[in-house]
Each structure stands twice: as structure tokens, then as C-alpha cells.
Amino acid sequence: MNSEEKKIILKTEGLTKHYGGVKALHDADFTLADGEHVAIVGDNGAGKSTFIRQVTGVEIPTSGKIYFDGNLVNFKTPADAKKAGIEAVYQNLALADDLDVPSNIFLGQEETYFNLGPFSFLNENKMFKQSIDVLAKTGIKIPDIKITMNNMSGGQRQCVAISRSAGFASKLIIMDEPTAALGVQETKQVEKIIRSLKENGVPLIMISHNLRQVFNLVEKIWVFRQGQIVGCVETSKTDGNEIVSLITGVKQGVGEEASFI
Amino acid sequence: MIQKQKNFISSYRKLPPEFNIFLVLLGIALVFEILGWIFIGQSFLLNKRRLVIMILQVSVIGIIAVGVTQVIIMAGIDLSGGSLVALSAIVAASLAQNSTYTKAIYPHLTDLPFIVPVLAGIACGLFAGFISGSLIARTGIPPFIATLGMLVSARGAAAWYNNGKPVSFLGDDFTALGQGAWPVLIFLVVAAVFHILMRYTRYGKHTYAIGSNEEAARVAGINIVRHKIIVYSIAGALSGLAGVVTAARAMSAQAGMGMMYELDAISAAVIGGTSLFGGRGRIAGTLFGVLILGVISSGFVFMRIDAYYQDMVKGAIIVGAVIVDHYRNKKMRNKDKDT
Hints:
Chain A is of the alpha/beta class. Chain A contains eight helices and ten strands. Chain A has a single domain, classed as Rossmann fold (3-Layer(aba) Sandwich), CATH 3.40.50. In chain A, strand 7 (about 170-175), helix 6 and strand 8 form a beta-alpha-beta unit. Chain B is an all-alpha fold. Classes of the chains: A alpha/beta, B mainly alpha. The interface between A and B is medium-sized, with 35 and 29 residues.
């Protein structure tokens, strides 16, 4: 079996989302092979985040099909997508600021002593130890994980958010602008985590505005424009100019002077 | 030596957050104690009778406050507590009448075992809480409006239930629940149970998470609708229990009971350190908040100051507690910005 015939982990057919009259996403056909790392790029309002929200069950598509891990899926809630093995890191970080690190890492999937539904007693020790393991695996250093999130720096918060998804045995990780609000050192840390995911064969979809980062990290780039997928190119066979002209829709608009991108 | 010092510092840092509120409670009590010696010539604290009455008076508020605290931690609000006390009290009392009274509401349902009216009262509150919770979670209307509607409707239902007439001649088994130390005991057990649930179970963790960041809780896979309904139902059930205790204590029930109790309960929660912005607060703090309210009322009576002043001061204290909370939040937000 060569790499061309790799198992398809995620596939969408004609995925469409309309908000009233606004066509946020129209007829998107997308495929992702197992172990593959891809980026989704596009201008603001191109439909990138909308696409992610359909795949992760945060919203329900207007029409279209989603196949995950070989099965036709119909996620009604984020919990369904999580159960299937899709972990997402959202742009707004999606952390509960008043809770500590283990509570955030295990939010919605807490370890308990025995199951009594909502009134199950939490196994705080186990979550504490596993959190330390998870953070160690991703190389993140947080001095005291018992302090609450609002006492942490933006980088530490992002790292917790990422390790939450990377820490569980997931089949697909989706990151929406993972380094948008981070400094240089923190960005490097996050990129290191992404590379370690690649080594472990965990497939990844990343939304990013940072083309340098995209070219460094992923092998395929999907370009969205005005709610539609306008292209999919392999990183090794393209350059910044082609991507930018796909993003903007202007074929010859970007000259040599824009090559700094 | 250095090791010892370190231990001392770390043990100080580990003091529960309720310690500050306890100091406030102690401070207020001491002020009354000193004023008492100066102006009245007797001790405020060294009077067992006064302390007993004080704790008895606040235990009904305390039972409601335990539920309200959970709602506020979830970034909601429950204004219906006082009205649910009246409604549940009347419903419970109507099933607790003794057969010697010939004009009982349900002539065939007299001399029932005391557990029947108790459960009926709690169920009544639970049902009302379930309605408020469902409205809030499913339609997305602000909790303030939903529970304000319940506040008005439940008061109306309480008056409608027996055409505005009081319900009395209650069985001795039932009224025993309101006598002696029972109300205090019920309050303490309720507070302990929910303190543990909030601190150590999935229920508590999700309540804090929703109050802290509802969107994060939703994408983490928490069933927000179900959880909100559960929390409001529990708050309703506790108001129902408070109604049962009130009826038992008064040995009768009428539609005007529990007026403004919801505000006292919210005050107790806020004074006890629960943030109106959600995500922060503990039942143990509310326990001290309730005691602070009790000490203030009891202190004003002790000082023979008019009840009007008491309400004015209580209002000022509530606003003060919210201002403190507001600045604490602002400080945290600014800290986020810096980083």
C-alpha cells in the first residue's frame, strides 16, 4: 500500500451552510487522508471557520454529507464529534477561566470513581496526574497546574487548549488559528507540538493566516474563497504567489514585490 | 527554621477563601458586642437565646440561598424563591391538616404521615424550578425575566390555591419539623450536601464551567440545556423545602409568606463571595453570608434601632458586596490584558 492509497479519515460531499440568506459555505468537497496535515487558508468570511463548525458538530449543516473514519456521520452536538474522535482547538480558546488546568483538560469528560450520572464523584487525583502526563507529552511547562486559567499568560492558555485535544487519543485534531495571539517563543512551542503530532501520525486540519507557518508545517493547502473551496495544492508544488492569488481571486495581481509573504 | 517558616506560609495560603468572610462576620459581631457594652450595658454574643433565635430566623433564608448560590455560580439568577416558599407552604399545609378540623381543604386527606406534605411541598418547588429552567435553557430568555415571571405567577398561584385564605390546623408530626433545632439542622444538612456536590462531583464542575464560559462548556460536550434545567429544578426544590419548614414553623400557611426572601438569599450568596458574573463562589461562603445577614438583623434589634434603618443598611451592604466583586473581576480582566 503506497501513500496514494492511504485511508481517508475525513471526507465531505457538497457540505453547505446557509445563515438565512447568507451562503457562508457552499458545496464544499473536502478529503483528508489518515496522518495527513493540511491547512485551510482564505480571507475573512471565506467560510473556513464555518466549515470547521460543521465538521465538529458545533453547527448542523444545511445540506451535504460528512464521512468520518469510513462512516457517514451526522453530528448533532460537539459531544458527538468528540465521541467519534474529533478534537478541536477553537479560535476563542474555549477555556473556563475560573477552573484550573486539570478541570479544563478534562472538561466534559471527567474521570470519576463510579458513574452516578451528573452526581458522580470526580477522581481529582487521577485527573491531576494525567494532566501532568499530557502536558509533559506536549512539552509544556506550567509551574502550578492547580491555579485557575485567568492567572495564566496567553501562551500558557493556548498550550493548555492544545494539549487538551492532543492529550486524548483522538483520530483527528482541528486547530483554528492556533498561534494568532502568541509571541515568538510561544508560537515555536505550538509548532513543536504540531510536529510531534505529525510524527505520531495524528491527522490535523489547521486554519491559519500565517503563510510562512503553513508552508513550514503542512503538506497540503486548501484555499477557501467566498464560501467555496477554490483549490487544493500541495505545499511542495506551489509558492506564496499562487496561494495568494487563489485567496484573493486575482490571477496576476500579486507581483514579485509581494513575495515576502 | 526556614523550613518551618515555609510551612507556615504555605499553610496560610491554603486557608479556605471563606476565611475572609468569616473575619467580616466576626468583625460585625464584635462591633455590636462593643456597642452593646457601651450603650445597652449587656453582651451581644454571650446570650444563648439571642443566638438561637438569630440562627433559626436565617435558616429558611439559608435553605433558599444554597439553591440560589448554585444558580448564580452558573451565571444565572433566581428571583422566584420567596414566592415558591409561599406556594409550597400552602400546598404542603393543605396536605398536613389534622382530622379534628372539620373544614379541611381535602377532608379525605387528613392525618397523613408527615412525609407526604413534605414531599408535596418539595415537589411543588421542583416543578416550578423545572418550568423556569426549561424556559431559560430552551428559549434562551434571560433568567432574570423567567424567574421574575415565576415570582409573580407563584405568588398568584399561592393565593388562588385556597382563595387567599390561610391554611392552618396542621398535624403535630408536620409542625414538629419547624420547632426546636430542626430548621437549623435541615439548613446545615442541605448546605453540607450541596457543598460536597458542588466541590467534588461532575455536577458541580459543570455548573462552574457553564458559569465561567458557557461556549467553552458547550464545545467541551456538556449538555447545557439539561444541566441548566437540573440546577434551576434543584433551586426550586430547595425553595419548596424552605416553604415546608416555614409552614411547619408558623403552624399555618398563607399566600403572603416568604415575601422578599429571594433578595435576602441572593444577598447572602453575594456577601458570601459568589460572583454575579458566574464561575466563582462556594456554598460554605453562602453559609457565612447567611450568618452575616442574621447578625445584622439581630444586632439592629439588640441595639433597638428601627427596622427601617435595618433595610437601608442591608441594601447598602448588598451593593457594597457587588462593588467588591466587580473590582475583583476588573482586576482579573486587566491582568489578562497585560499578558
